[in-house]
Amino acid sequence: MINFFIVSISAGCLYVSLNPFIKFWAGKSYVLSLPVVVIVVLNYFFDQLRQSSITFISAYGLFVPNGKKSVIEAILNFVLSLSLLLVFHLGIRGVLLGTILTNLFLNSWWEPLLLFRLGFGFKKKYLRFYVFNYALNSVFVILVVFVISKTILYLDQFMFQSNLFIAFLNSLIMIFLW
Asked: What are the extents of the domains in the chain?
């Protein structure tokens, strides 16, 4: 839950501060479109949520069972990303969406299942953990961050400070409201 809390806040901060920081750093012409920012933040969010499971899998030495998943993950990610890139012409959005879909379709259930069954020795508690703690909390966090970020991005229209200051202030507001 600590990892989940930190990832939720940092994803919200990334969402509201990425474009103001890019404006400051590289200029207005390099600002990312809103769909790209959403996809980058979702990719970060789902990738970082895996870190707790990966840490425990490493600590328990479950490298061989997890190694099989890594091969499937690489193939699935390649196929999905390439399909979204070439067939649907989504560009960088397609590649990132392929990674997000791989995390959702494979990693989000395989790694916790492996950890609960082989690491912790629990067979029945996995489903309850997965459905309530992972899926429902993820949906809740995404909705909360969406509502808070809409408020912050609306307020950005009335700020005439430096873009670096706006990025910093957006992050502070996100942390405070979260």
From this structure: 2-177
